[in-house]
Amino acid sequence: MTLPCPPLNPYVPPALGHLPEWGAAPLALLDAGAGAARAAGLDLFTLQLGRPAVVGFSPEWNRAVLTGPATFRSRGSFSSLVPYLNGGVIVTDAPEHADRRSKLNPGFSRAALAGMTDALRRRLSPFPAGPTDALAWADTTVRQLLNTAYFAGEFDDALLARFLAPLRRPFPAPLLPRPATLAAVRRELLRLGRARATRSRPDLLTALVQQPGWMEDTRVSLAAAHDTTTHALAYAVWALAQRPDLQTPEQHPAVIKEVLRLYPPGWMGSRRLGCDLNWHGHTLPAGTLALYSTYLTHRDPALWEDPDTFRPQRWAQKPPAWAYLPFGGGERTCLGMHLANLLLGETLAALPPLRALAGNAAPLPGLTLGPEGPLWVERA
Ligand code: HEM
């Protein structure tokens, strides 16, 4: 039996396969593929994305992908196509990856980050008066907090905005090379890195600059940090603004978890098979693009009760293993998981009571998944 495959659009030249749908409406394509796989009693389906690709969504597949770095390689996956992410730890494969990560991990640990909490609180501006687009506000807030966390606020803010802005624009904007901006970012990093050689600051760059390849890891981790955290924050603010009953610090952790379940910014993880793989009798050849879909897993009715409903109280119970992976898992678990949780927690704790006015919260999958926006809210 061959693996199921969502139908190809008959009006599209066969050579393009699913690429037009993948570009225009990938969530619908994923839902169609998962429907076909479930109907066949399988957890995997194929897509034609210019090269053979498989998408899986079961906890078993997620565990295989995320704990098999020798088989599931990062170099040559989707990240390699995005200049922002094609570098440093993100595209370093096993066995070198483990060593590179072990050098970066201490700076991003919960304990190390605790020391910057006061600086982050001081950086948070009061929530604006009057109607405010929570998405645009989250974008600026996260950029400023990242500047504080990474550079003690010393990175040229206009340059940081210029560097990060294309990430949230529709394709192909995030795929364009932008050599002038990258050169300016490198000069700014060099200036700030040199300053830390003589005097340390309470920031991430002080830890990063001591590692080989620090400039690349600083740049790619910043890119990985910004949109993901912005989108999670925007959705969390929108959720709080709709639900006054959730606007207490005790509720915030469950709100964040539920936002990351329903709207995982990392909606799709990608790898490339380094060797042939036999998956329940199906041979997947080396070189196949192997995708895991956090979006599908997080909304799988076999794993979650009422999966499409925003229900923070579900977090009173633990989910099944490998069913919840907003930060991935295994040795490539998100480097910034604790940083993201710190930024989200501190920002929500500082919010005044809000109410929702109007907005479009439909999930829009780009490089990361976020609300279409705008999301208009105001102080209650
Ligand atoms: C809510 C916010 C965030 C979400 C949802 C998120 C999600 C993820 C996911 C799903 C992965 C694994 C991708 C894979 O399968 O390879 C990942 C990896 C990564 N993330 Fe995050 N991320 C967030 C924030 C951050 C922040 C703040 C940083 C800043 C350091 C960051 C840096 C990275 C890096 C460097 C990797 C690659 C790790 C490796 O390959 O060893 N992320 N993130």
TrEMBL record:
Pfam hit, one: p450
Swiss-Prot/TrEMBL keywords: Heme, Iron, Metal-binding, Monooxygenase, Oxidoreductase
Domain of life: Bacteria
Keyword Oxidoreductase belongs to the record: yes
Co-factor requirement: heme
Molecular functions per Gene Ontology: heme binding; iron ion binding; monooxygenase activity; oxidoreductase activity, acting on paired donors, with incorporation or reduction of molecular oxygen
Keyword Membrane: no
Entry's family note: Belongs to the cytochrome P450 family.
PANTHER family: CYTOCHROME P450 (PTHR24305), CYTOCHROME P450 12A4, MITOCHONDRIAL-RELATED (PTHR24305:SF166)
Annotated protein name in UniProt: Cytochrome P450
